[in-house]
Design goal:
This protein starts with a strand and ends with a helix. The protein has 6 helices and 9 strands; from the N terminus they run βαβββαβαββββααα. α1 runs parallel beside α6. The protein has one domain: Rossmann fold (3-Layer(aba) Sandwich). A hairpin with a 5-residue loop joins β8 and β9. By secondary structure, the chain is of the alpha/beta class. Helix content is 27%, strand content 20%. It is globular, with a radius of gyration of 17 Å. The strands form 2 sheets. The chain has a 7-stranded mixed β-sheet with strand order 3-2-1-4-5-7-6, covered by helices on one side. It has a two-stranded antiparallel ribbon with strand order 8-9.
Length: 194
């Protein structure tokens, strides 16, 4: 299959599909972290280039639940509208099979984005992390968990209890946007065959 992994700089999902013999490409404004077939640029320019499958990771800055608290200025409302428009263009592109992943959206964004089909967690795919991820699926089955892991919990000095995903993971958008290898492998195996 000809596979596009949209808005992925890490190359993790791309390489999971490439390892199974697919013509897999990632596309992002950033350069790729793993050498491979990567288009550095605007994914909107290549959306309709005859892909068989697209897995998209559109920016969630203005769409996730945490964003609802601080979309309070005119500029941020404009950016929110642009984020919704980008999500819509990706969702409605000319590709037979589509998976869009994003965190749980805030209420206004959910109305714009439509209902997601599934919520997955890294701990369902072999990682001791909690990070709820929604999947909007078109012509793809729900992703089946491959390896359930019991979560480790950490208690902060103030007595709050967190899972490893929230307490120890770096709190920047670059670190948190990388797909877990177990999830990438499950996508490639279950949606890519071979």
């Amino acid at each position: 299959m000809k596979v596009l992994v949209a808005c992925e700089f890490s190359g993790i999902v791309r390489e999971a599909f490439a390892a199974r013999g697919h013509d897999a490409w990632s596309c992002d404004l950033l350069p790729t972290e793993i050498p491979g077939q990567h288009i550095q640029g605007d994914v909107l320019e290549i959306l309709d280039d005859g892909w068989d499958l697209m897995i998209a990771h559109p920016p969630c800055t203005y769409l996730c639940r945490q964003a609802a608290r601080w979309i309070d200025t005119y500029e941020k409302k404009i950016a929110y509208g642009e984020a919704c428009g980008f999500f819509d263009k990706v969702k409605n592109c000319d590709c037979p099979k589509i998976c869009i992943e994003n965190p749980i959206p805030h209420l206004a964004a959910k109305q714009e984005m439509g209902d997601y089909n599934q919520i997955i967690q890294p701990y369902q795919f072999g990682h001791d992390y909690s990070k709820a991820t929604c999947l909007w699926l078109q012509c793809l089955p729900k992703l089946k968990p491959t390896k359930e892991v019991e979560l480790t919990y950490y208690t902060t000095p103030k007595g709050r209890r967190y899972t490893k995903g929230w307490y120890l993971t770096p709190r920047n958008s670059i670190a948190r946007s990388r797909t877990f290898q177990g999830i990438a492998d499950a996508m490639a195996e279950q949606w890519g065959g071979k």
